Amino acid sequence: MSAIYKTEAGENEIRHRYQKALDAWPVPADHLRLATHQGETFVVASGPEHAAPLVLLHGSGTNATMWRGDVTSWSRHFRVYAVDLIGEPGLSAPARPPLDSDAYARWLDEVLDALGIAAAPIVATSLGGWMALDYATRRPDRVTRLALMCPGGVGRTRSAWLFKAIALSFFGRRGIRRSARSVAGLENLPDESVLDDLVLTFTQFKPRTARLPRFSDETLGSLTQPLMVTVGERDALFDSADTADRIRRRVPHAEVRSLPGVGHSIFGQTDAILAFLSD
Q1: How many domains does the chain have?
Q2: Above 50 in pLDDT, residue 150?
Q3: Closest C-alpha to 28, from 66, 75, 73
Q4: Torsions phi, psi of 165, nearest 5?
Q5: Is 148 helix (H, G, I), strand (E, B) or coil?
Q6: Is residue 134 one of the residues assigned to a domain?
Q7: Does residue 132 contact residue 107 with C-beta atoms inside 8 Å?
């Protein structure tokens, strides 16, 4: 059993559910397994092989399936690479190198090199957003554009959600379901399978406990790539107002969008992101 799961049965259940989602991927796709110094990295590649590349980095506690609602549209224009982050409940290695290091940038170097990508736009969310920003500031020549949703490492991290989640966990699966809805902002979901996946993850997966390093004003100010940041006003994990304010002040060329009534999990941005990528 991998150390990032609570039980072997739980790991198997998560992997089985993921495989079913991959089997139902909405467009033809290739499943790539890339060797890196952190271990194997799994990538779902969709779209024409010779189209311009687009790299997707998901958030914590999920995997490439979070992009299944977007990939049909984006893969008409790009060769889309949905990367399973290391240390998360996908099919990549369980490695979790220190966040306050260049380890994730070196890992992404190897991933892009293995894919034959010299430079590409990145779409990312939450933890993936932190990794995308970290990479863009360390390797500015390899990132052409950034479209980020609720990125970590910019606004203040909130802690109140943790106490609420712990309290609700005492009510068993029903409590965990309520906690998942509240923390992720999934009160009005058209597809309950998203919540089912999240509840399974909350139950069987061990999320990272270390806080994401916060980018300095100087580091944010070094970003020169076209940047679009979308936040949910009701984000329970990160202070979205602080995120928006810091991006506006330190990256004045960035487009910042704040969505009223939306929590940490942001859906329905397929067309807006495509317009930004195609600008």
Answers
A1: 1
A2: yes
A3: 75
A4: -65, -40
A5: strand
A6: yes
A7: no
Residue 152 is predicted with a pLDDT of 96
Query: pLDDT over 70 for what percent of the chain?
Result: 86
Strand order in the sheet with 227-232: 29-36, 39-46, 79-83, 53-57, 120-125, 143-149, 227-232, 255-259
125, containing H or E segment = strand 120-125
Place of tokens 């949905």: 82
Query: What is the predicted pLDDT for the residue at 161?
Result: 41
Against a cut of 0.85, is the pTM above it?
yes
Assign 190 a pLDDT band (cuts: 50, 70, 90): very low
Structural domain of 125? 8-278
Q: State both tokens at 272.
A: 């807006």
How far apart (Å, rounded) are the C-alpha atoms in residues 128 and 192?
Answer: 23
Tokens of 138: 């360390």
Question: For residue 57, what is the domain's CATH number?
Answer: 3.40.50.1820
CA pair distance 72, 63, nearest whole angstrom: 17
Distances (CA, A) of 90 to 25, 147, 225: 15, 22, 29
Angle subtended at Cα 248 by Cα 247 and Cα 251, rounded to the nearest 5 degrees: 65
- Relative to beta strand 79-83, strand 143-149 is unpaired
Read off the tokens for 179: 């906690």
In a domain, 235, yes or no: yes
CB 117 within 8 A of CB 143: no
135: pLDDT strictly greater than 90 = yes
Residue range 168-183, pLDDT digits in tens:
343 445 555 555 555 5
3 within a domain of the structure (yes/no): no
Establish if 67 belongs to a structural domain: yes
Q: Locate tokens 């203040």: which residue?
A: 156
